[in-house]
Amino acid sequence: MVKLQDHHSFKDKVVQNLKISRYDRVFKLLLRHSKNAREALIRVMKKEIKKDARKAKIPSFQMPVDFYSFNNFSWRNALKELLNSLPLLTSFIQESLCKGNKKAVV
Questions:
Q1: Average pLDDT value for residue range 82-87
Q2: How far is it, in rounded angstroms, from Cα 27 to Cα 25?
Q3: Is 61 within a domain?
Q4: Does residue 17 register a pLDDT over 80?
Q5: Would residue 39 count as lying in a domain?
Q6: Between the CA atoms of 42, 45, 47 and 52, what dihedral angle is there, to the nearest 10 degrees?
Q7: Rg of the chain over CA atoms, in angstroms?
Q8: Which has the closest alpha carbon to 90: 59, 60, 45?
Q9: Is 49 in the same domain as 90?
Q10: Do 53 and 95 reside in the same domain of the chain?
């Protein structure tokens, strides 16, 4: 019986936070308490990242592979191009890797 009440209060909290536009809390609640929500988010993220990746033009990764281009390759430029071309993916990776360190930049 307690589990049912917890589940009900979880849904109430989601609705309350939606009403006051606290979407960060809504996602946190959904991801923590709902397997369906986690799976749905993963599906949507995969679809959107694949769509972005198909359209992405990242010159640093399209250079010919030879000694000259290898010596002149800049990870800083490549990451900037990646951020501009795939903002969803880079934001997701940055948040995942730097959760505790808000000042860190990937």
A1: 88
A2: 5
A3: yes
A4: yes
A5: no
A6: -160
A7: 20
A8: 45
A9: yes
A10: yes
| Residues 10/33, Cβ–Cβ less than 8 Å | yes
**Whether this model's pTM surpasses 0.90:** no
- Do 62 and 96 fall within a single domain? yes
20 shares a domain with 61: no
Domain count, the chain: 2
Taking the mean position of all CA atoms in its chain, how far away is CA 103?
17
pLDDT at 26 over 60: yes
Is the confidence at residue 3, as pLDDT, over 80? no
In which domain, by residue range, is 69 found? 45-106
Residue 8: the pLDDT is 62
Q: Mention every residue, 6+ apart, whose C-beta is less than 8 A from residue 33.
A: 7, 10
| DSSP 8-class letter at 21 | T
